[in-house]
Amino acid sequence: xxxxxxxxxxxxxxxxxxxxxxxxxxxxxxxxxxxxxxxxxxxxxxxxxxxxxxxxxxxxxxxxxxxxxxxxxxxxxxxxxxxxxxxxxxxxxxxxxxxxxxxxxxxxxxxxxxxxxxxxxxxxxxxxxxxxxxxxxxxxxxxxxxxxxxxxxxxxxxxxxxxxxxxxxxxxxxxxxxxxxxxxxxxxxxxxxxxxxxxxxxxxxxxxxxxxxxxxxxxxxxxxxxxxxxxxxxxxxxxxxxxxxxxxxxxxxxxxxxxxxxxxxxxxxxxxxxxxxxxxxxxxxxxxxxxxxxxxxxxxxxxxxxxxxxxxxxxxxxxxxxxxxxxxxxxxxxxxxxxxxxxxxxxxxxxxxxxxxxxxxxxxxxxxxxxxxxxxxxxxxxxxxxx
Length: 387
What we know:
Strand order of the largest sheet: 8-7-6-5-4-13-10-9
Distance between the termini: 75 Å
Number of strands: 20
Structural class: alpha/beta
């Protein structure tokens, strides 16, 4: 009986929310292994940005502001905006208003070639919506828009969420309301791997500032293990954010570290979302935040577009790594991604000569420096056969 009722809610919601001029062509992103693919089979790169308030802007008649943000995002070759469909603390958006405005926001994003990660449940301890009804309505809308992805809950274990949302069984039940054609994440899985049960996973990495401020960057290397263990796309969806001034445990304002964070995220095989203070309100970054974004965004021009699809991520000094050792008193950390006979090496927090010791057979083909970041490409010459 419950399944019949759920189906009825989704079907009725879909009819009620469909406009007479709605015509949608194409398919949703598809998950294949640890990557997203477009309908034509080509690789989709998750190059996202925090834009929590976009739906609220549309709901309150501020479409021009939402359009300006989307225009800016598209002009920077971003591919995903992450939005809330309800809120109480950062701003006020009633669930019903979020549902009403969501189709228009999806249309606006699609017109600019942008995908939308729709976050369903936010601040549920304060708002207390009918979770199943809200997710069902989102599901009905998302099923019609090929540029939609759904994250059931923002930080499901967070104190701002109702007790029921802390239960992975409840999140799975809600995720089952979303059509199988729509990519779905249960919610960020940093508190429990059980929250990684969707067909893609989101993760909010720790924002520690140890290791001379590099802690939150180095911690992203753990993402390679998550990708391997979960065998699905993993998105670093809300890492430490950028801000005009640093805030311990929450925000950084060093553009160099944001470049490093994006490079390491990609080497680890994850998709990346740029998080920043003004993004909570869906404002275009300015000042120091814009500088941090510009360096973060640079990572896609410094590494090949398909780099995440192949190769093995390693920490320097590990067995089979190209780098045998380095000057640990002058370098914070060194990571690499090997594919076939080539490798990309990323050295972080370099002070002076990093003294990289290469294993036999490796030859540097390119070395680029960005302040204290070294990005090196090397190739391995196979051994000549014995005479």
